[in-house]
Amino acid sequence: MAYPDFVCMGFQKCGTTSLYDILAQHPQVALCRDVKEPMYYRVPFLSVIGLGSVYYRKRYFGHVGRGDRRKKGEINAGLTFGGCAEKLAKDFPRDTKMIFMLRNPVDRSYSAYKYFLARGFLPAEAVAYDAVHGHARGFDHYAHSVLDDPGQRGKIMSSRMKYLVFSQSNYAACISDYLKEFDIRNMKFVVFEDFIRDQHRVCREIYEFIGVEDAEGIQYNLRSNEGRERATSGLRAREFCIIKGINYFLYDLIAMPHWAPKLYERYAAFYGKIRSKCLAEDSDRSGVLPSTRTYLMGYFEKDLNHLEKLTGVRW
Asked: pTM of the predicted model, to two decimals?
């Protein structure tokens, strides 16, 4: 069992789920078994409890037998967190193909804000403010509460998990971690705005990059995981965050559906009830305020200039 031939490691809210749904249809591609985003390299304690790299290959690519010529791939928007590049470098071949999906950083941050708001990742004060004032003003309030505070602003990239709304929009800083370990000639940078404009054209470029042919019968024009959900309350958001974490452990890490399907069915039913209780449809379709966009583009300016030097991508 070998490591994947290619990995798409983000960024979050940049179309990785849509790309997953497209590649899952391709007859020459084999994605991770059962899971879009394996937690193995994202969770530090796994090595402590004895789950080694053999486990990773067996758990996620054990369904790909010897002689199977399909290209093995992992789509994982969480691999741009601090330390993941170094972890992959210890195990993955240096010629592993890497795909980075990038989006206008303000729009990515706003989409991430709404997504994490519903899942209990943001401070209770931010959740409460948003509930009263709506997403546009709530996002503006949250952005200023973090970026106007020198202490918090200075910790965004060192505490990436805490500040996911902004840390994963600092693309150059995250990509630089991978450039220390891997060759840029094996990296492809996909712009989200191009991807949603013409998915088939962009996917043909991705097919060529990972070494597969264009295929008939694949459904394009997908807009997966748009995150149009809101928490029914701040407390429910926290509750869902905990239950979802348990589900990651049971379904992803220990593959419970494979060795205890009946038991997992019972948990899945419970998980579904909690989800429906904690999340509801989000009717707020407000966009980013112009003043917020200007403010955030000022914050991201330095990283965007660095990104252009590294990759040629610019906004």
From this structure: 0.93
